[in-house]
């Protein structure tokens, strides 16, 4: 028998860590069990030949509401991306930026030639509405798919196919844009209100910073959980008696531990990392394919945003592909030559990172996004499958689950 405690948290990803932080702040005894050898779940960073290689292309949005509760983002030493996107159309690169963040880029965006001027004005109005309308109103709106919502906003096929599908497919990991319009609204809100950046020490710095205030002896690594039940968690090292259990693992693992949960389909993607002697672009901006080839979702020079991602004198390029089937690296290299408009012959392929369970699918109906976290009999669940499929969703669900635990413990 392992030591007893009030709450056992199963899973050391962002949701589990957020739950631990709230319970710790409330002074409730808890213990976290993580099956792997590190914290962070799907947010991780490896070092390959001096390069910081995140487990797939990930970024941090400063507008995520739950971040401020858990850490001071200044300590992450974020390097920021341009608030906009480059679109490859034939022989040209068209630059579109958020004029509120990049005022000098406003005239160029108006004349960018991606869709019509009316398209660009309508999309700007859509994003501005998402940024300013209260969240409750956004989530009370009739729900449909993201693609249908964009078309109902009056956007043409041209701007959807040349800009929004390639861009949003990388955000949702969903090329069909079958994701809920409520998720779309929250994504547009966060992009309009926040800045997008990378921690100087890689995305793994985020879970490290969230875990930092927690006692290390309560964070147990390499402890797989075999079974959970009301008042008990079973591991190979023995059972832990408790008053409540928070299951904060990925959806497939959560469904295995909690059979009452509905099956959640997961989206997959692959990121190719290349080293270049010179940056193919001068600024830290996302490049998408407006030529409708539908191979590459996006590509970006990470070291332009955070120079620490590459050794001195080198540059790191990340290129992401949506879907379970990853093209061979030479195919991607050929696409990069076309997209950047320059030779990639002197680039070095560092590694390819496949993430088969990157994000939970979120088709309509998602309702108000906040799915129940209390399952009854002292069992709770957290993760981005209980909220929006995002870093914010993981953090928010963990925080909510801990709040539900506190309510139940106070009532008992």
UniProtKB/TrEMBL annotation:
GO terms for molecular function: oxidoreductase activity. Residues 14-406 form the Amine oxidase domain. It comes from the Bacteria. PANTHER family: AMINE OXIDASE. This is FAD-dependent oxidoreductase. The lineage of its organism: Bacteria, Bacillati, Actinomycetota, Actinomycetes, Micromonosporales.
């Amino acid at each position: 028998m392992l030591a007893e405690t009030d709450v056992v948290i199963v899973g050391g990803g962002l949701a589990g860590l957020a739950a631990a932080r709230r319970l710790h702040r409330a002074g409730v005894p808890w213990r976290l069990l993580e099956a792997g050898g590190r914290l962070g779940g799907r947010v991780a960073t490896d070092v390959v030949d001096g390069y910081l290689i995140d487990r797939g292309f990930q970024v941090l949005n400063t507008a995520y509401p739950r971040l401020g509760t858990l850490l001071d983002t200044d300590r992450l030493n974020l390097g920021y991306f341009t608030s906009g996107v480059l679109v490859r159309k034939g022989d040209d690169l068209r630059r579109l930026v958020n004029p509120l963040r990049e005022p000098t880029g406003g005239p160029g965006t108006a004349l960018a030639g991606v869709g019509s001027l009316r398209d660009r004005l309508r999309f700007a109005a859509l994003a501005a509405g998402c940024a300013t309308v209260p969240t409750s109103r956004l989530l009370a709106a009739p729900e449909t798919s993201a693609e249908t919502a964009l078309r109902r906003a009056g956007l043409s096929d041209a701007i959807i196919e040349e800009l929004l599908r390639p861009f949003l497919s990388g955000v949702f990991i969903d090329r069909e844009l079958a994701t809920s319009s409520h998720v779309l609204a929250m994504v547009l809100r966060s992009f309009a209100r926040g800045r997008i950046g990378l921690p100087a020490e890689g995305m793994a710095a985020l879970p490290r910073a969230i875990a930092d205030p927690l006692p290390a002896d309560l964070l147990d690594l390499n402890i797989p959980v075999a079974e959970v039940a009301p008042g008990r968690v079973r591991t190979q090292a023995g059972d832990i008696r408790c008053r409540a259990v928070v299951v904060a693992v990925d959806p497939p693992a959560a469904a295995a531990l909690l059979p009452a949960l509905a099956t959640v389909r997961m989206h997959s993607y692959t990121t190719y990392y290349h080293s270049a002697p010179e940056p193919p672009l001068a600024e830290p901006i996302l490049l998408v394919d407006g030529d409708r080839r539908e191979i590459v979702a996006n590509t970006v020079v990470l070291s332009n945003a955070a120079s620490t991602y590459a050794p001195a004198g080198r540059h790191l390029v990340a290129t992401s592909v949506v879907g379970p089937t990853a093209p061979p690296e030479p195919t991607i290299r050929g696409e990069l030559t076309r997209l950047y408009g320059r030779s990639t012959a002197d680039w070095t392929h560092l590694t390819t990172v496949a993430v088969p369970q990157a994000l939970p699918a979120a088709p309509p109906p998602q309702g108000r996004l906040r799915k129940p976290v209390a399952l009854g009999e002292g069992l709770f669940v957290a993760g981005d499958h209980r909220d929006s499929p995002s870093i914010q969703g993981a953090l928010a669900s963990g925080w909510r689950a801990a709040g539900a635990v506190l309510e139940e413990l106070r009532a008992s």
